[in-house]
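Bench log, entry 3. Co-assembly request; chain sequences pasted below exactly as received.
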Amino acid sequence: MKRVFLGTLLAGLLASSAAYADSVDVAVAANFTKVAEELAVRFKTETGHDLVLSFGATGQLYTQITQGAPFEILLAADDERPTRAVKDGFGVDGSVFTYAIGTLALYSTSLVVGDGEAVLKGPFDKLAIADPEAAPYGKAAVQTLKAMGIYDMVAPRLVTGENISQTLQFVESGNAELGFVAVSQVMGKDSVWLVPSGFHEPIRQDAVLLKTGQANPAATAFIDFLKSDKAVAVIKAAGYAVD
Amino acid sequence: MSLVEIWQPVSLTLSLAAINTLILLLAGTPIALWLARSQSRYREMVGALVSMPLVLPPTVLGFYLLLALGPNGPGGWIAGLWGGRTLAFSFTGLVIGSFFYSLPFMIQPLRNAFAAIGNEPLEAASSLGASNWQRFWRVVLPLARPGYITGAVMTFAHTVGEFGVVLMIGGNIPGQTKVIAIALYDYVERLQWGHAHLLALGMVIFAFVVIAVTLIVDRRLNTPMP
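Structure output for the full assembly:
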């Protein structure tokens, strides 16, 4: 009797895991939130597979992956963590590729940022950046301030968002006048200054297939989809460059 | 690993908790007294309002506080008095947030202590010619001592353990708004687990000591004198 019950239970578990096989758990760097949501819709119509998206700072997501988070793909905001994922045994060897190259932008809802460098050297109360240790856009922001030679001057006025979404929120809510965010977050907004690429290392955003997703056809399908012309067009339209 | 780096959030958290406890001791007393003694029909409404932080997710409080402290809220107006734009991302902002967040932890024990005193001791004091102030200082305060101790310890401990509200209104500024819980979160996200262990273990010991002390004090005070 007991055995029959266990057998049914096992069969049930197997069946339910099979039913989940056409969905993919993807960890997405916060700057790519909007684009990932749009890609999810298109991926669904194209293949019928569902994307289950989790957003966060790249460092945050990577920590979760090292602790067994059930993500099958990581869309990072840097080219460091995906490579490290492979080295540390979480990522599939040879699956790392650059899906987007990000642009840093200075954004404000209260100041006019025609010339960002001048605004940064002028008076303001708070400048929001993403956590430079966990979020690549935060790191690029710090590099930019250092390249301008004003980091020490601005440092006491920095507020740090846990990820690039919270950084944008700090500016949108008006609590910080200025913020370094991703261009994709502020497409179509007025007071945006694109940071010239010479001020910081390029923000190469790499994707990696994780070992948990290796056997999931939907996961590999999404990797292929991400490289397709259709997906690239969406990514470019959102303000990213692609190799 | 630098101890200075660890000490900064610790000392910041301790001063936030100390200031918040002090403010709540002062502000909580009249509120709790009113809740314990008033016959008003709004009494339970106010009681419920004060207790809401027990049930609400910190994010609800954080969201409203962020707007209230910001340039378009009263906080922005207050900050404007000394030329600032917002009370968010400041130590003052954290004190305001902690006040609301910890309110029930001070009010509940005080209210219970005041209610337990009952009418007799106060009436006896009145019949002996005591003024309202004298009744408060000489009767209510000594009799409510266990409530004050529990309230102060719980408020202090709860402020030390605050995370969600600070995450939303703090802006993670070292020495100003980066409290222990936020620092710990950051260390974990950055995979600096040595630092994380130090802070986490410290908090575990702290929590144990706080609860043990509360229980012991509670027992001593409730045991009748021989």
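The radius of gyration of chain A is 20 Å. Chain A has two domains: 2-101+203-237, 104-194.
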